[in-house]
Amino acid sequence: MANITKKVSWSSRADESGATGEGTPLLNGSEQPRHSRQLSEGRSIFQIGRLSTVDLEEEITSDEDSLRGRPKEIPHNEKLLSLKYESLDYDNIENQLFLEEERRMSHMGFRCLEISRWVVCGLIGFLTGLIACFIDIVVEELAGIKYQVVKENIEKFTEVGGLSISLILWAVFNSAFVMVGAIIVAYFEPIAAGSGIPQIKCYLNGVKIPRVVRLKTLLVKVGGVICSVVGGLAVGKEGPMIHSGAVVAAGVSQGRSTSLKRDFKIFEYFRRDTEKRDFVSAGAAAGVSAAFGAPVGGVLFSLEEGASFWNQMLTWRIFFASMISTFTLNFFLSIYHNKPGDLSNPGLINFGRFETESVAYNLYEIPLFIAMGAIGGLLGALFNVLNYWLTIFRIRYVHRPCLQVMEAMLVAAVTATVSFTMIYFSNDCQPLGPEHTEEYPLQLFCADGEYNSMATAFFNTPERSVRSLFHNQPGTYNPLTLGLFTLTYFFLACWTYGLAVSAGVFIPSLLIGAAWGRLFGILLASITTTGSTWAVPGKYALMGAAAQLGGIVRMTLSLTVIMVEATGNISYGLPIMLVLMTSKIVGDYFVEGLYDIHIKLQSVPFLHWEAPATSHWLTAREVMSSPVTCLNRIEKVGTIVDILSNTSTNHNGFPVVVQVAGNDEPAKLCGLILRSQLIVLLKHKVFVELARSRLTHRKLQLKDFRDAYPRFPPIQSIHVSQDERECMMDLMEFMNATPYTVPQETSLPRVFKLFRALGLRHLVVVDDENRVVGLVTRKDLARYHLGKHGLEELQLAQT
């Protein structure tokens, strides 16, 4: 049947040569999918377009070569799905070895496992809190030195003239720090760029993003965050904490470090994707908790953004990790501030206390909050659209590490220049109060005893600026100051997100929102006669911050709880929820959330919660990949090696079939085996002949598979002699004898639900006789999505 054999067609090298134009040509000449109806074997079947593969980069083995061998401009199209991403096996491989081990384990064994899960979660929380503490202290110290030097310099030159020297000093400081941060990211670990939240979302969704939870990534991430925040970029250190927590979790739970080649021989049972993914969701939650002092928000973040498979005990353990993380950070920061035992610093960002009496809200203010939510949604959509086009420009033109470092340094210098110019031309002078909270008040051209309020916004770490916008007395900021600050910071933050530095978008969004929210409050107070009593600017600054952040990242449940926990005032729950809902609804009308946009731009096969709404008329037969490479239960070693070595069909799962004796019917399905398992079998030479000849031959155990996880050797590194190729291999013991299967008439939403809820990697499609007709993988399902013109099918690309 013509429409079943629609596997990827691999484009040849010759096609690739002409592919450096500005547009985004599909390189083997395929058009966009057309809806065509085709008759075959007397039955009519829908066929949506045709699949093709686009080679966007040359397949070069080493990382260094891939940097040198890239074209000057990389064509890009988000209507592609990349084939380089594999799925994680969230489903346990229930082969005979696994079942025997589980049956041998006593009730006490299972109890010990449960206890060790709690221990791991406690360790994850503790280490994540320590990392947050380290980042916070280093940033405080370095930023303090930088601002003190620049402040003294400015004060010196304000009197004698020559402030341009101060500007150059500031810009050089910023560029130097950012250069270090950008070099370690661009040259040593590019995956550590950005906040890391899109990557962790993908990992928890079940996509194996290469190098995302390595120790090297963590080190680069922490160093990069410190450099970019001290370098004065419009960034926060909160987003990267989530990634750092996830890396810590992935490392601790495995009881060894593959990077350091050290195996501590503990937690060996957890060396598989199922367990590791649960711990990574705990690490992400601990990261949120350390960043915002919001343990419940952390749990809800993992639930909302990540884990596809969820149970009650997992929730409880994740909450435990989050609580430990907040407590650790709190405890060590209290020692650092010379107040041991005073646990008043629950998170890296502290919004300060909103006392209920001073900032209560009235019923008639709720429509105003909703209107602010709508404004936040519009501004967030604008931010995302601008960042989307900027990212496409970066993918096409700024893909060499040296260019990425230069761009980051340029942004740092521009940020310093813009900040300095704004402070220089601002004449918004405010008196220094007796209990002045300004950390680095700049006098500049103000009278004695006064300070420049624009400097409070710019000449500070972003966290401090947010706090001053929330809590400073009414009248501290001039409306013009706030308006100009919002405008400049909006574009700076948009330009900064996506640079080759480790940095989050949470704090810049809160800062932009707090600035225009405070402006909104001041304008309300000036318009209405009684406004000055109820329109407290700090309250509107909080709502503006929530609206702006919701408009950019589109998180709802977890963000509401994070904001409520960070402000320490539950009475704001309803307004914050309404603001976030409105900003999400308004923003979604125009464009997706920032993290979703970046996931799409990386062509990741991301599966949402539900199948596309109009996909009921598609069946498993139309979405599956076929023909399928099957293996016999007792297969010749040479055949297995040839199949695994075939680079054009880089399959990872192989249905195992058995021939019915004395019958010439097609073979029937009896199990499923993975590439990684076959590689371990070949490495240990588990051949039928050798097992017969050597009586002492050690039986392969699950431990051998766990020791090879997660970096299984490539097939090229395994030597199989000519004699060994003639041997046979019995897959009976190692294959999963009960794989999930669906009939070929199953509708797409049903296939999708089964695949997504169980976290599968392969789903075998069988006919009435239990014969294999196809295989459904993540890419087959992620291809279909709702576009502007109904159901669309993405192309598959070898990027």
Automatic annotation (TrEMBL):
Biased composition (Polar residues): 1-12
Similarity comment: Belongs to the chloride channel (TC 2.A.49) family.
InterPro entries: CBS_dom (IPR000644), CBS_dom_sf (IPR046342), CIC-7 (IPR002249), Cl-channel/antiporter (IPR051280), Cl-channel_core (IPR014743), ClC (IPR001807)
Organism superkingdom: Eukaryota
Keyword Ion transport: yes
Membrane topology of this protein: Multi-pass membrane protein
A GO term, aspect molecular function: chloride channel activity
Name this protein carries in UniProt: Chloride channel protein
